[in-house]
Amino acid sequence: MPAVDVAETDKAYEITAELPGMEDKNVEVRLASGVLSIKGEKQEEKEQKDKNYYRRERSFGSFERSFQVPDDVDADKIEASFKNGVLSVILPKSAEAQQQAKKIEVKTG
Question: How far, in Å, CA of 13 to CA of 93, rounded?
C-alpha cells in the first residue's frame, strides 16, 4: 500500500501518493459516485546472465486506494500529474465553496 498524504488549502484538496518504481501508464485515477480511486499495478522483471549462472526474477503487485470526495469539490476541474514516482491529484473547491470560507477572529478574554 503506497504512502498517501491528503492536505487542504483554501482553494483545493491535494492528494499525494508515493509510487516508487512505477510508471504513469500503470496508474489509474478515477472518480465515480463521489469516490476518487487510485489504482496501480507494478510488474518488474530482472534477468542476469553470467558465465556460470542464469537468473531471472519477476515481481508483481497491485494496489487500490479510495477517498470520499467532499461535496464542495468541482469535479470537472480535478487534475492528476505523475513525476519521479509521485502522483499528485488536485481537487479544486468550487467557486461557491471558496467564497463561503471566512476567517473568524479569535478574541482573548
Answer: 7
Decide if 85 contacts 3 (C-beta within 8 A): no
Residues 6+ apart with CB under 8 A from 62: 39, 40, 41, 42
- Give CA separation, 34 vs 11, 39, 52, in Å: 19, 16, 56
Q: Which domains does the chain have, with CATH numbers?
A: 4-100 (2.60.40.790)
First to last CA, the chain: 47
SS (HEC) of 41-72: EEEEEEEEECCCCEEEEEEEEEEEEEEECCCC
pLDDT per residue as tens digits for the range 54-78: 888 877 788 999 999 998 899 999 9
What stretches in the chain show pLDDT beneath 50?
none
Question: Rounded CA gap, 4 and 87, in Å?
Answer: 9
pTM: 0.74
